[in-house]
């Protein structure tokens, strides 16, 4: 007797299959692919589009996006909010719809966050070649524009026959659900194959649970790690995004309370401890706090937990200056664990911290060390207070005063989203995270335009939670269009739009590195041809209103506070628009960041910047 089959198109089979996939961790089961974002064109409308229609909203919820890149951002926001235990798919047409995915895919993969990409592709039959939007490679005939997704995907296949979907779909789910491998996963779907019928084995559509394992530490590595911690006098934990992905916050808290070891965090790891925990030192590195960076300079053991050690964290290799410093890296991937020539503990963050704590039994840092970092933390709290405080309620707020007003508005579980501009640095130094999911900084790719679509994904993942997308004017202009989606879906996301007429961040960086702020302000051309004229008469608040948001314009600190409270109380998508005072109220950088400066130049600013640069480079260490 032959096994039962079901006759469906490839696209219908894929949608049915995706709707039956689940993850499970700690006894909790979730849909692996909870919904599908889509924009239709000839590359997917009759295949995946028809299949989604036939499946219906109950089987596979569908969300309409405005731009393929921002659909990926929304999916990434969703997956991050749910600690990678649930993800979304994104279907696109072929050609421009597909290549618009590349930036989003890179962002997902670099941040180690799952998203399933389903771009349409050329006809597997090659019958109508070249079809509209098809790349004709004169030598490699099987290459399509979708091949641009290969380097930014953790798994890639082109499904050139219906039955080829079966092994690839299973591999795709494995990668999405695997904490050590996850990122963007691409199944490119030739247009003709999407619509082709096949007799699928019924078993392909059975419910399948992808168990998200908590890999335990290896006993030999554990013994060595315990020894390293016992013999350290000035240990410092660097908490990265892995703490959140693993939901290891409580284990980390128990570990630091037992050992007294303080925690500094990366952008992805901030909020691993509550900001007012005595062992929480705030951000580390170029955008870190004075207390974190001072401890990093003098630490004899740096314990990285779930961190990739980007240049911002290591101050481009200049931060860890103790000649005796050693590293111990607890990470789910061997790739990250081995960075900085570390001792490794390749395991899940939560299970690793729990096992370390058991094995350490009673070891604690000295009282002097604890008193030292507590005093440093208290000093930094005053820096935050000063940056937040607005003396005059009727004055135009500075950017850090905007953060102060938001700090006074949010509750413990509000989510604050940001990715690029001068805000990430200010937030890393100043934000007081009150809960693990509150601080949502995308700083692996630092992609302008992530914030608004990500807010939609976060809101889908956390209904009822106030969500704030913080955007500069440059970032807003990069990608405001997903506002329409928030309006369409009735999602009450909030945007705080800070107008400072251009790229304050890159302007400042340009100034420091000899570029004299060239090309970073949004201003009219002056008589000399440079962009140094009056600010542009662009009304971004009116733009947000035109896309369907409620808009509140705040001109003073008082108006801002009222507007933020009103936005939080509203059940409509609301934009709080504020022009900021450029007065520098943000604390300066406590550590360097390597941006190479012209080695030869005729302008004095660059010559001086290069002298400063050479002094900084000299401080770089290679940890071997
Ligand atoms: C997509 C993208 N393009 C370029 C950059 C480089 N970049 C980083 S910050 C920035 C300017 C951001 O301007 P705005 O949002 O107004 O924030 P501000 O710097 O004024 O705080 C640019 C161009 C980037 N991070 N992402
Ligand atoms: Mg700006």
Description:
- This protein is an alpha/beta fold and 624 residues long.
- The chain folds into three domains: 5-211, Rossmann fold (3-Layer(aba) Sandwich), CATH 3.40.50; 219-379, 3-Layer(aba) Sandwich (Rossmann fold); 390-501 and 536-579, 3-Layer(aba) Sandwich (Rossmann fold), CATH 3.40.50.
- Helix content is 37%, strand content 18%.
- It contains 24 helices and 23 strands.
- The strands form five sheets. Strands 5-4-6-7-9-8 form a six-stranded parallel beta sheet.
- Helix 3 (68-81) packs across helix 18 (451-461) and helix 8 (219-230) crosses helix 14 (349-360).
- The protein starts with a strand and ends in a 7-residue tail after the last helix.
- Bound molecules: thiamine diphosphate (TPP) and magnesium ion.
- Magnesium ion is lined by residues 421, 472-474, 500, 502-504.
- This is 3D-(3,5/4)-trihydroxycyclohexane-1,2-dione acylhydrolase (Decyclizing).
Topology diagram in text:
Layout: E1 5-9, H1 10-18, E2 21-25, E3 28-31, E4 33-38, H2 45-55, E5 62-64, H3 68-81, E6 87-92, H4 96-99, H5 101-110, E7 115-121, E8 155-158, H6 165-177, E9 184-190, H7 191-195, E10 197-201, E11 208-211, H8 219-230, E12 235-239, H9 241-245, H10 249-259, E13 263-265, E14 280-283, H11 290-298, E15 301-305, H12 311-314, E16 326-331, H13 334-337, E17 343-346, H14 349-360, H15 367-388, H16 399-409, E18 415-418, H17 423-430, E19 439-441, H18 451-461, E20 467-472, H19 473-478, H20 483-489, E21 494-499, H21 504-512, H22 540-546, E22 550-554, H23 557-569, E23 574-579, H24 604-617
Parallel strand pairs: 2-11, 4-5, 4-6, 6-7, 7-9, 8-9, 12-13, 12-15, 13-14, 15-16, 16-17, 18-19, 18-20, 20-21, 21-23, 22-23
Antiparallel strand pairs: 1-10, 2-3
Helix pairs in contact: 1-2, 3-5, 3-18, 8-14, 10-14, 11-15, 16-23
The structure holds thiamine diphosphate and magnesium ion.
Magnesium ion binds next to helix 19.
């Amino acid at each position: 007797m032959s096994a039962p089959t079901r006759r469906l198109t490839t696209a219908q089979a894929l949608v049915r299959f995706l709707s039956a996939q689940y993850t499970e961790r700690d006894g909790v089961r979730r849909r692996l692919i909870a919904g599908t974002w889509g924009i239709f064109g000839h590359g997917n409308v009759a295949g995946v589009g028809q299949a989604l229609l036939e499946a219906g909203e109950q089987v596979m919820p569908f969300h309409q996006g405005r731009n393929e890149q921002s659909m990926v951002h929304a999916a990434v926001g969703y997956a991050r909010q749910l600690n990678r235990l649930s993800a979304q798919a994104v279907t696109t047409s072929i050609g421009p719809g597909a290549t618009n995915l590349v930036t989003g895919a890179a962002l997902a993969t670099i941040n180690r966050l799952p998203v399933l990409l389903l771009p349409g592709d050329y006809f597997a039959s090659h019958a109508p070649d070249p079809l509209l939007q098809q790349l004709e490679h004169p030598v490699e005939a099987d290459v399509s524009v979708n091949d641009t997704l290969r380097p930014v995907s953790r798994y890639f296949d082109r499904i050139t026959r219906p039955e080829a979907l079966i092994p690839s779909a299973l591999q795709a789910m494995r990668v999405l659900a695997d904490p050590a491998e996850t990122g963007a996963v691409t199944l490119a779907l030739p247009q003709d194959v999407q619509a082709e019928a096949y007799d699928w084995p019924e078993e392909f559509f059975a419910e399948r649970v992808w168990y998200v394992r908590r890999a335990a530490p290896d006993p030999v590595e554990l013994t060595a790690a315990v020894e390293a911690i016992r013999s350290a006098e000035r240990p410092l934990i660097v908490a990265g995004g892995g703490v959140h992905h693993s939901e290891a916050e409580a284990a980390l808290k128990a570990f630091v309370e037992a050992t007294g070891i303080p925690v500094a965090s990366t952008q992805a790891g901030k909020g691993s401890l509550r900001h007012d925990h005595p062992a929480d030192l705030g951000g580390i590195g170029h955008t870190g706090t004075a207390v974190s960076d001072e401890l990093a300079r003098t630490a004899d053991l740096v314990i990285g937990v779930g961190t990739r050690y980007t240049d911002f964290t290591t101050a481009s290799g200049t931060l860890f200056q103790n000649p005796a410093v050693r590293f111990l890296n607890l990470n789910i991937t061997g790739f990250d664990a081995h960075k900085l020539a570390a001792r490794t503990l390749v395991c899940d963050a939560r299970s690793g911290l729990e096992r370390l704590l058991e094995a350490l039994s009673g070891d604690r840092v000295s009282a002097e060390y604890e008193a030292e970092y507590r005093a440093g933390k208290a000093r930094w709290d005053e820096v935050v207070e000063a940056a937040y405080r607005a003396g005059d309620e009727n004055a135009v707020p500075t950017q850090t005063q905007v953060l102060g007003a938001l700090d006074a508005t949010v509750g413990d579980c509000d989510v604050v989203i940001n990715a690029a501009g001068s805000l990430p640095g200010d937030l890393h130094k100043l934000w007081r995270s009150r809960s693990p999911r509150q601080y949502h900084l995308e700083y692996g790719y630092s992609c302008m335009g992530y914030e608004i679509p990500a807010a939609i994904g976060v809101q889908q993942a956390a209904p009822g939670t106030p969500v704030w997308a913080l955007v500069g004017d440059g970032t807003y202009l990069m990608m405001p269009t997903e506002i329409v989606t928030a309006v369409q879906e009735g999602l009450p996301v909030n945007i705080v739009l800070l107008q400072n007429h251009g790229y304050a961040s890159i302007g400042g960086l340009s100034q420091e590195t000899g570029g004299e702020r060239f090309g970073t302000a949004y201003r009219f051309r002056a008589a000399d041809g440079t962009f140094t004229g009056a600010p542009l008469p662009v009304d971004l608040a009116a733009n947000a209103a035109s896309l369907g948001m409620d808009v509140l314009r705040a001109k003073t600190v008082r108006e801002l506070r009222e507007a933020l409270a009103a936005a939080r109380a509203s059940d409509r998508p609301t934009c709080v628009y504020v022009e900021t005072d450029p007065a520098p109220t943000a604390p300066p950088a406590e550590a360097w960041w390597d941006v190479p400066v012209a080695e030869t130049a005729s302008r004095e600013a660059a010559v001086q910047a290069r002298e400063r640069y050479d002094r900084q480079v000299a401080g770089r260490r290679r940890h071997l």
